[in-house]
Amino acid sequence: MAVYLIEFRFQGYAKRYLKKIIFEVGRKFRVKGVTGKHVVPHITLFGPFSTRDEKKLVETFHRVLRKHNLYYFNLKGFSNFDKRVIFVDIKPSEELNELRQELAKELINLRSFLFFKTVKTKPFDYEEDFSFHATIAFKDIGNKFDRILNYLKHKAKPTIHQRLLRVTLLRNRKILHEYDFLQKRLLNGQEALNRQVWKRTIELLKQNNPR
Predict the structure, then answer these.
(1) Hey, what domains does the chain have and what are their CATH numbers?
(2) How far is CA 211 from CA 8, 42, 202, 207, in A?
(3) Could you tell me the CA-to-CA distances from 162 to 47, 126, 149 in Å, in that order?
(4) How far, CA to CA in Å, does 183 sit from each of 4, 130, 179, 198, 201?
(5) Which stretches of the chain are assigned E, i.e. beta strand?
(6) What is the DSSP string of 90-137?
(7) Which is nearest to 9 in space by CA: 115, 125, 186, 168?
(8) Model confidence over 35-92: pLDDT tens digits?
(9) pLDDT tens digit string along 161-198?
(10) Which has the closest alpha carbon to 149: 89, 78, 77?
């Protein structure tokens, strides 16, 4: 059965900043974590999960997101989950938090009433007090945890303002669809990676936010 994930993928300065920190920690402390040939800094919004009804999943994903607009959030320093994960803390706007809650509720309801136990989710998908974060290091940090966290906390805290331009639906780690809040449409995987389509998104952003 395919594995799905819904996330926000960083772009621009925030993406470059997060990739720099991820690789810096990876090299300095010899940990793999989220490093690899293809690092994609992101915020997980729901999942990973599985379902037997992809069509219904895509319909729900689109239906929920098209009701929402261009929301904001901030990167606000470093934090951790126990000694398992080190991340950049994300402070969402109230609207973004509501979007995630609605999306989670709709997908969980599909599991309960329509898919009949075919959507398998994680416990944190049910939480109203969801922790928005962008992972820096995890898995193999082991006894290096304290040194890594101390190193990061002595660096300048990131205070980056971001807009939620798109939300991505992955299937087995590949883009199945993205919803574009500026173009107000659902993109397929090829369109989501197309530079001209992205250029149009940025043009619309500039029109919405003239200097």
Answers:
(1) 4-208 (3.90.1140.10)
(2) 25, 27, 14, 9
(3) 22, 25, 24
(4) 24, 28, 9, 10, 6
(5) 4-9, 42-49, 72-81, 85-92, 133-138, 159-163, 166-171, 174-180, 185-188
(6) EEE-HHHHHHHHHHHHHHHHIIIIISSS--B--GGGG-SS---EEEEE
(7) 168
(8) 566 789 999 999 888 888 899 999 999 999 999 999 999 998 899 988 889 999 999 9
(9) 999 999 999 999 999 999 999 999 999 999 999 999 99
(10) 78
What pTM was estimated for this model as a whole? 0.89
Residue type for position 27: R
Amino acid type, 122: K
- Report which residue type is found at 20: K
Residue tagged 């101390």 (tokens): 150
- Cis, peptide link before residue 48, omega less than 30° from 0: yes
The pair of structure tokens assigned to 41 is: 């800094």
